[in-house]
Amino acid sequence: MSVFTLGAAEREAELVPELAALTERHRAACLPYQRILDATGAAPPYRRLTDLPWLPVRLFKTHELRSVPQEQVFRVLTSSGTTGQRPSRIYLDREAAAAQTRMLAATLRVVLGERRLPMLVVDSRSVVRDPALSARGAGVLGMMNFGRDHTFVLDEQGRVDAEAVKGFLARHGGERFLIFGFTFMVWLCLRELGADLSQGVLIHSGGWKRLAEQAVDNAEFRRRLADECGLAEIHNFYGMVEQIGTVFLEGPDGDGLYCPDFADVVIRDPETWQEAPHGVPGLIEVVSTLPTSYPGHVLLTEDLGVVRGVDDGAWPGKRFEVLGRLPRAEARGCSDTMGQG
Fold this sequence. Notes:
Largest sheet: 12 strands, mixed
Number of helices: 10
Structural class: alpha/beta
Helix content: 25-40%
Strand content: 15-25%
Number of strands: 14
Radius of gyration: 20 Å
C-alpha cells in the first residue's frame, strides 16, 4: 500500500488535527516545551499547518526534550553534528521506535517492492563495524534492513573493490537489486566501476556540497549515472535524525522530493517567518505525526528549499527541492567527505 496518496488539501485536513493533538500532548508531558510554547504565546486553535508552533531543530542540541519518563526511554539517537559541536539527542520509547521503523519501511516499499533485494552498499564494511557508530554508519546499517546478500563496493582501505562488485553482478545482475550510498560517494565510486547496473534501484542521500563545487546538479547526476552505468531508477531522499523514520522521497521522474501521507513541508521566509509563496525559496519546516515520544513533530530546519509544484507530479502533494544549508548555519558534517564519519 502506497504512502504517497494524499493531495495537498486532503493531507492538510488530515494532518492539522493530529499535529494539534500532538502539540498539546507534548505541552502536557514536556516541561521545557511547555515553557517555549508559553513564552511564544502558542495556543489552539490551529487551523492550518502554518499555525502550528515550530521548534528550531538546533534546540535538540542544547535541551533535553522528551515527552516520556526516563524509565520508558528505549533508545537515544544522536545526530552526526560537526567536530566540537554537541549532537542532537532524540529520545524514543518502544512505541515511537516501532512506528518509525514501520513507516520508513512503508515509504521505501513504494520504490523497492515487498521483497528484500540483493544489495550493493557504496561504502566500506568498516563503517558499520565501528563501536561508536557514526551517522554515516547508522545510515548504512538502517538501509541494510531492506537488502540481502550485502556486498560492499569499497574494501577496508576505502578503495573500489571491482572484484566484489563483479561477483555480486554475476549472482544478481540479471534481477532487480538495491544500491545504497551517500550522494558524493555514489558519484565518485559507481562511475569508476564501468559496470552494467541497469537492473539496480539506487537510493541515495546526503550533502550535495562537494558535487555543487564540481557543478554537478541533480539532473546531471541522474544523466551521467544513466549514461555510464545504465541506472534508470534513482531516488534521492531527505531526512534527519530529529524526525527519524520520516523520509521525503524523490519521485520516479527526478522532478522533486515528495512527502509521505503522514508528513508535509512548509517553506518559510527567513525574514518574516510567514509561508513563502510556491516557487520562492525559504527555510524548510518539516512536520510529521511520528514523533510521539519527543516534541519533534513540527521542526524548522536550517536548510533552504523551494516548493516546485503541488499535485502536479508523479505522486500527489507538494513537490519540493532542497537548495542547501542556510549561510552561516552549522554544517552537519555527515557524508560530504569519505574520510568523515
